[in-house]
Design goal:
globular; alpha/beta; 4-stranded mixed β-sheet; 7-stranded mixed β-sheet; single chain; Aspartate Aminotransferase, domain 1; 484 residues; Aspartate Aminotransferase, domain 2; 16% strand; 2 domains
Length: 484
C-alpha cells in the first residue's frame, strides 16, 4: 500500500498480515493448552474457597443482592465444560440461558473474536458501523427469505430491545392500535412494556400497568382439537369486543420460559388465518427458539413462514435482530439505537450461524434432533431405575400427566417430583454443587431446563451429565419433606 494508490485502504495492511496470523495462531495454541485439563466435572478446591467467597460477596454487594447461583467463571472453558474461580469444572447445560451455542472457548470463534479486537469499533451502532453489521443482517434475511416474506433486518443489542422494536413496527402499521394478543405462559423480556406483556406477575411487581394484553390459551395436547377450538374462540371474542384495536398477535412457536411447550401446525394455522383476516400483524418471537429446533427458524419446521410479518431473534446469534416484511417496513426514525452489537459479536455470530447451517445440525436426523433423543433416553433410563422420583404431574382443571420429558431439539426439559417448585429449585442447586448447571422453566408444574451447547456437544457427553443428574436427584429425594 502506498499513499499514491487511491484504491488502497489502511485496513489492507491488516488483512492477510503474516505477523498477525502468527500471533493469533500462538494465542489459540496457548488456549488449547490451557483447555487440555478440562475433560470432565471436578469439585471445587478447598484452597480457593476463601477467595471464591470473596468474589461472591463482592458480586452481591455491587449488585445489591446475591446471584441465583454462586457462579463466577475463571474465563476458561472447553465446549460444554466451564471452569469457575473456585477450581471446580461443571457441565454447562444452560449456556447463559441459551447464549453459548458453541459452549466455552471454541478455538475458531476465539480466533475470530481476537481478530475483531483489531477493529476501530469495539461497539458498532446504528449511526456508525462497519461491513460486519451489514453482512450479519444479510445472512439472517437470506435464510429467512427462503421460506417467508421477511425482507429487512434491524439489529440491536438485546432480545428485549428487538422485541420493543417489533412492537413499535406493529403499532405503527396498525395506526397505534392499543391492544396486544399474546399466549398464556409467554415471556417477552424485562423492559417496562415487555414485562407487562409476559405472563408472569412476579416480573412486573410495582410496575404501572398500561399495556392492554389479551391472552390466548396455548396448545394443550391433552385436549387436542378442543384446545385449538378454545384458542380460536377466545381470539374471536376479543376481536368482537375490541374491533380493529389489536396491533399484533405475538407467538412463541415453542414457548421458552413457559415450559418448553410445543404445538403442531394445526394449532397455529386457524389462529393465524383469523389474524390475517382481521389485519392483525403476526409477530414470531424466536429469541430463545432461534437455531435450536430442527430448522434454523422455528417457522420453517411448521411451514408457517407465509404468515410471519415480524420476527425477533437473539441469544445464540450473539447480536439480536428484528426482521420484517417489505409491507411492515416502518417510517424513518422509528427504529434506531446507539448500540447494535460489538464487532466481535457480529463476526462470531455470523460464523456460528454458518456453522450451524452447514454443519449438519438441522433436519429430523440432524445434530439438534440426535442430542434431543439422547437427552430423552438419559432421563427415561433414570426414570426406569427410580420411578418414585417422577410421580404423576398435576395439571390445570384437575388433570394430570405421566409425561415427564418435553421440548424439541436443543430445548430440553424434564419434570421430577411432580413439578413441585421447592423440590425442583433444590434440585437445581444440588445439580450445580455436583457439577451440572441448568435452570428452571414453567410456572406450575416447574421443570428442569437444559439449553446445552448443541453446536459442539456430542451425544456421548450426556452420559456423565446424566450420572450427575441422577446423583443430585437421589440427594434431594432423601431429604426430609420440610427441607426439600
Amino acid at each position: 500500500m502506498t499513499q499514491s494508490d487511491p484504491a488502497a485502504l489502511a485496513a489492507d495492511h491488516l488483512a492477510g498480515n503474516a505477523r498477525i496470523d502468527e500471533a493469533v495462531a500462538a494465542i489459540v495454541d496457548e488456549l488449547r493448552t490451557a483447555q487440555a485439563t478440562l475433560d470432565g466435572a471436578r469439585p471445587a478446591s478447598a484452597a480457593l474457597a476463601e477467595s471464591y467467597q470473596q468474589w461472591i460477596d463482592r458480586n452481591a454487594t455491587v449488585r445489591g443482592r446475591g446471584a441465583w447461583y454462586p457462579y463466577v467463571g475463571s474465563g476458561v472453558g472447553r465446549g460444554p465444560l466451564v471452569e469457575l474461580l473456585d477450581g471446580s469444572v461443571k457441565w454447562d447445560m444452560i449456556g447463559g440461558i441459551g447464549v453459548h451455542l458453541f459452549g466455552h472457548g471454541d478455538p475458531e470463534l476465539v480466533e475470530i473474536a481476537v481478530r475483531a479486537g483489531l477493529s476501530d469499533l469495539l461497539m458498532q451502532g446504528n449511526l456508525q458501523y462497519n461491513g460486519d453489521s451489514i453482512e450479519f443482517a444479510e445472512l439472517l434475511v437470506a435464510e429467512a427469505a427462503k421460506r417467508s416474506r421477511l425482507a429487512h433486518c434491524f439489529v440491536s443489542n438485546s432480545g428485549c430491545m428487538v422485541n420493543e422494536s417489533a412492537l413499535k413496527v406493529c403499532q405503527q402499521k396498525t395506526g397505534g392500535a392499543p391492544r396486544i394478543f399474546a399466549f398464556a405462559g409467554c415471556f417477552m423480556g424485562r423492559s417496562t412494556t415487555m414485562s407487562q406483556i409476559g405472563d408472569n406477575a412476579a416480573y412486573r411487581q410495582g410496575v404501572p400497568l398500561n399495556a392492554l394484553v389479551d391472552y390466548l390459551p396455548f396448545f394443550d395436547p391433552a385436549l387436542g382439537e378442543r384446545s385449538i377450538e378454545m384458542a380460536r374462540w377466545h381470539m374471536e371474542q376479543q376481536i368482537l369486543r375490541y374491533p380493529k384495536q389489536h396491533s399484533c398477535l405475538i407467538v412463541e412457536l415453542v414457548q421458552g420460559e413457559g415450559g418448553f411447550n410445543t404445538a403442531p401446525r394445526e394449532f397455529f394455522l386457524p389462529i393465524f388465518e383469523l389474524a390475517r383476516a382481521h389485519g392483525i400483524p403476526i409477530w414470531d418471537d424466536e429469541v430463545q427458539t432461534f437455531g435450536r429446533t430442527e430448522t434454523m427458524y422455528a417457522f420453517e419446521r411448521l411451514d408457517l413462514g407465509e404468515f410471519v410479518d415480524v420476527l425477533t431473534l437473539g441469544k445464540m446469534s450473539q447480536a439480536c435482530a428484528c426482521l420484517f416484511t417489505a409491507e411492515m417496513n416502518p417510517g424513518p426514525g422509528l427504529l434506531s439505537g446507539t448500540f447494535s452489537a460489538s464487532t466481535a459479536a457480529f463476526r462470531v455470530g455470523r460464523r456460528l450461524l454458518e456453522r450451524m447451517r452447514d454443519g449438519g445440525h438441522y433436519g429430523p436426523d440432524g445434530g439438534n434432533a440426535r442430542l434431543h433423543r439422547a437427552f430423552r433416553e438419559g432421563i427415561a433410563a433414570i426414570q426406569g431405575r427410580h420411578p418414585e422420583w417422577f410421580p404423576t404431574v398435576p395439571l390445570e382443571f384437575g388433570r394430570s400427566t405421566d409425561e415427564v420429558v418435553g421440548g424439541i431439539g436443543g430445548m430440553m426439559r424434564f419434570t421430577p417430583f411432580g413439578g413441585d417448585k421447592a423440590k425442583v429449585m433444590r434440585l437445581l442447586h444440588t445439580m450445580f454443587e455436583e457439577g451440572v448447571i441448568a435452570f428452571a422453566c414453567g410456572h406450575g408444574p416447574y421443570h428442569v431446563r437444559f439449553l446445552p451447547p448443541v453446536g459442539v456437544m456430542r451425544v456421548e457427553q450426556f452420559a456423565p451429565v446424566m450420572e450427575i443428574v441422577e446423583r443430585a436427584l437421589a440427594r434431594v429425594a432423601m431429604e426430609p419433606a420440610e427441607t426439600a
